[in-house]
Model the fold of this input.
Amino acid sequence: MPAGNFPLVNALHDLRGPWQVSFDPRWGGPEGPVTFANLEDWSKRPEEGIRHYSGLATYRTAFDLPSPPDGRRLFLDLGRVRDLGEVRLNGRSLGVVWCAPWRIEITEAIRRGSNDLEVVVANEWVNRLIGDAGRPPEQRLTWTTWNPYTPESPLLESGLLGPVRLSEIVTSLDTPGTPR
Done:
């Protein structure tokens, strides 16, 4: 039975990490991947290159699925994403999520045993403009005809915020947690 605009979901397994996150150094991101023990907002990170980063960043983690989905449709629920994310599972692109409920079906790509997950996240340009506003012109990475932001402007929430979990849709014939 649906709840509001979205169907009921039965969470099966949380993907807690750690996550290897790669940023583009050409846009101020750090060289090489950074380990996030937990999912967190880029704008709260201590590294200036992450806090003011705008662009694409790739999150990678691996997880095990001990038993096959036995005919059930499985989904990856990303929790919250700022601002959009492309999901790749075991090398297969499954699509882009850009609004709630931040969920995508993974039934055809998931496998028993080890699975490799990538989520490529893109955020807005604002945080880079704010970071550049505090730099000398020759060190800025962005340019615009008018920048309403100052170094004191509040940063926007960015990144994969989670929680990330495997789930299934509950139909009116299902009871959550009941084996089929």
